[in-house]
Each structure stands twice: as C-alpha cells, then as structure tokens.
Sequence to fold (173 residues):
Amino acid sequence: MKLYSYFRSSASYRVRIALNLKKIPHETDFVHLLKNGGEQRSAAYAALNPQKLVPALATEEGVFTQSLAIIEYLEETHPEMPLLPATAAERARVRAIAQLMACDIHPLNNLRVLQYLQNHLQADEAAKKRLVCPLDQRRLRCIGTTLAIAANRPLLPRRHPHAGRLLLSAASV
Fold:
C-alpha cells in the first residue's frame, strides 16, 4: 500500500492520520505541489491519478482518491481499531464534521483556488485573506459549536486506544 501525499495538504494529512490510527503499514511517496510547477501535474502522476490531486492511495485493488473516500475504504477493509463510533447517529455526527472540513473549509484554502485568485483574478495576498478568512472563521465557529454540542461523545469508539486523546470538552472549543 502506497500513499501519495504532500506534507502541507490537509486532505493528505487526514489520510495519514487514519493510516496511523489504524496502524496500517504503508509507504509514502511525497508529491511536491509547488516544485517544478507541481509534481502532481507530471505525466507519470496523471497516469496514476487523472485528477492530479493528492492524496492517492495505491493498493492491490487499485488506486483510490479523495481523502474521505480513502478513509471509508480503510475503515471497511481494515475493521480492526475502527475510526467511526458504533451507532448510526454518532457516525453521522462524525461524518458531518469531516465533510464540513473537507467540503466547506478545505476548498477555499486549496492551492488551486488560491493560485486561481492570484493568477486569473489578480488578487494579492490581502485580497485573498479578505475573501477566505471571514468564511473560514464562520465555518470554524460552526465546527466549535458542533463539537461543543457533542462534548461528551468521543470522536472515536471508546474501544479505540486513542479515543481518550480526541475527547473534547465544551471548554476546549
């Protein structure tokens, strides 16, 4: 199993966390998103992942892309040390938080979006911050509120050895 990753990619980071929590042996191949115009744009990487994005997870069953889909794949193929809680309601809450991060916050901080703002709309750093920061702050407050409501519920099943480390109290959000 090989993870194609970039150290500053929050999407890749999500998959690295899942692989490590589940203690799944894997290799990591770093794809530098800035070097040489972006290694993800190379013909070799595009053949592996036509989306030209990280992360990508190469397995015996094929190559999987998109962090949440990869994490679901890992959860289903390696059920020991589950990442998701036991009940459907608790799993839905965890997935909602994960999707809020992946779908609402991540796209605006994405390198492709920031480069588009700069290269095609001539947005300088101040303009990019005026666009991204207020939206991020609202979304982060939403995550904080969501976590505060679920303050006494672990984000990982209680039987997971790292569950206690991820418990949040209302005072910490």
Remarks:
- The first strand starts at residue 2 and ends at 5.
- The first helix runs from residue 10 to 21.
- Residues 163-173 have pLDDT under 50 and may be disordered.
